[in-house]
Design brief:
With about 270 residues, this protein is of the alpha/beta class. The protein is about 45% helix and about 25% strand. Keywords: ATP-binding, Coiled coil, Nucleotide-binding.
């Protein structure tokens, strides 16, 4: 609660600085698997931060609202939300009917995300450095590893829009400059087991909700790691060529949905 409240205080300050006024009310999102006591603790954290929590909504629900899926068509619609961030991975199956959301199932891995992909590139570069420099090992040098990790994460991001990335670090270790070229294909190879493993929770979520993948009307991609082309293509392939919704910045989709919900609750339905 205390840590959450510190984050909410920071968010309140950020919002006030941007809007140039005071912010008292908020819609706060939580993972769909949160139980009642976790939701209450989140509300309490808001109170500690001096915020009036108008409503707690599920993150996948917020993402669906961001895409306007509750307004899209009449009748019941099944929506799968694939949410992969920096350290966690969540899959949720929602049904939407007449603007009412129901979470049918959730699955995921609390230890899978972008950091794991960074680690694979770091390991690859450490071996590469060792091979090029007569067995010199970076393992014990924290500063070198920190610098390497920063560049590896940058390369990973580059590979979401380019097919090649270059990692260049001056005087990485013992005065030795390090350069490495990494292709998107090699990156995919390094992380393929992680990408494949992410499909397990998707299948489990469908199984638990009793919904066949052919009956899923919409797939929504959330979280920074869903920018990775291989992740997108695997999901599209799994859903028989159905293109996922990914036009909204995946880092912001949940917050955008929460903002839309807040506007509805406060009667400020303007585009702002």
């Amino acid at each position: 609660e205390e840590i959450s409240s510190m984050i909410l205080v920071k968010m309140k300050e950020t919002a006030e600085a941007f809007l140039g006024g005071t912010v008292n009310d908020a819609v706060v999102t939580v993972p769909a698997y949160f139980n009642d006591s976790q939701r209450q603790a989140t509300k309490d954290a808001g109170a500690i931060a001096g915020i009036n929590v108008l409503r707690i909504i599920n993150e996948p629900t917020a993402a669906a609202i961001a895409y306007g899926l509750d307004k899209k068509a009449s009748g019941e619609r099944n929506v799968l939300i694939y949410d992969m961030g920096g350290g966690t991975f969540d899959v949720s199956l929602l049904t939407i009917e007449d603007g009412i959301f129901e979470v049918k199932a959730t699955a995921g891995d609390t230890h899978l995300g972008g950091e794991d992909f960074d680690n694979r590139i770091v390991d690859f570069c450490m071996q590469d450095f060792k091979r090029k420099n007569r067995g010199k090992d970076l393992a014990g040098n924290q500063r070198a590893l920190r610098r390497l990790r920063t560049q590896c994460e940058r390369a990973k991001r580059t590979l979401s829009s380019s097919t090649n990335a270059t990692i260049e670090i001056d005087s990485l270790f013992d005065g030795i400059d390090y350069t490495c070229s990494l292709s998107r294909a090699r990156f995919e190879e390094l992380c393929m087991d992680y990408f494949r493993n992410s499909m397990g929770p998707v299948e489990k979520c469908l199984k638990d909700s009793g919904i066949d993948k052919r009956s899923v009307h919409e797939v929504v991609m959330v979280g920074g790691s869903t920018r990775i082309p291989k992740v997108q293509s695997m999901i599209q392939e799994f859903f028989n060529g159905k293109a996922p919704n990914n036009s909204i910045n995946p880092d912001e989709a949940v917050a955008y949905g929460a903002a839309v919900q807040a506007a509805i609750l406060t009667g400020e339905g303007s585009s702002q």
